[in-house]
Inverse folding.
């Protein structure tokens, strides 16, 4: 009898962020990820490698990254929240896949030299469930929300009928 270790129920957001952190060390330009009931399979054609991460390993990696710190980038690094980082690109895609309740899919992703050049596409059961534009728009919404900017500016405290006056 083979006993299986119980795994933490990870969201795709957290699972893909975790795998993205591993990819940031290896630095491939392109990766193909297959998510299924067994775990995450990562293929990197740049170096002809294929790695299978069972869900238990992904959960352990996630806990380790949380325990030892995620290697928080310095505030001086403008690329800290850029789609040119694997962890950011895959985490954002994971959030959108979680919303759609996608459990198994294939993700094709490519990191660009600028955020608008990075690409991601997810297919499930032969249908495209996520494309680059959706990821970029979601990332912009998140970035605007968390960097302190107001999307529509600060509302005026003056009544609407006094806004045209300079006093």
């Amino acid at each position: 009898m083979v006993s299986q270790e119980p795994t933490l129920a990870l969201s795709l957001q957290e699972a893909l962020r975790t795998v993205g952190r591993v990819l940031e060390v290896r630095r491939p330009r392109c990766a193909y990820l297959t998510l299924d009931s067994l775990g995450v399979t990562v293929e990197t054609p740049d170096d002809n490698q294929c790695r299978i991460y069972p869900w238990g390993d992904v959960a352990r990696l996630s806990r380790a990254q949380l325990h030892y710190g995620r290697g928080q980038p310095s505030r001086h690094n403008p690329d800290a929240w850029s789609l040119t980082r694997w962890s950011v690109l895959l985490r954002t895609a994971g959030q959108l896949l979680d919303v759609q309740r996608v459990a198994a899919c294939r993700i094709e992703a490519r990191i660009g030299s600028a955020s608008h050049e990075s690409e991601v596409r997810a297919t499930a059961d032969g249908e495209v469930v996520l494309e680059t534009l959706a990821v970029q728009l979601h990332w912009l919404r998140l970035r605007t929300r968390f960097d302190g900017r107001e999307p529509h500016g600060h509302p005026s405290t003056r009544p609407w009928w006094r806004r045209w006056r300079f006093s």
Notes: The chain has a mean pLDDT of 83. The longest strand covers residues 30-36. Strands lie at 30-36, 39-44, 49-54, 105-110, 119-124, 127-130.
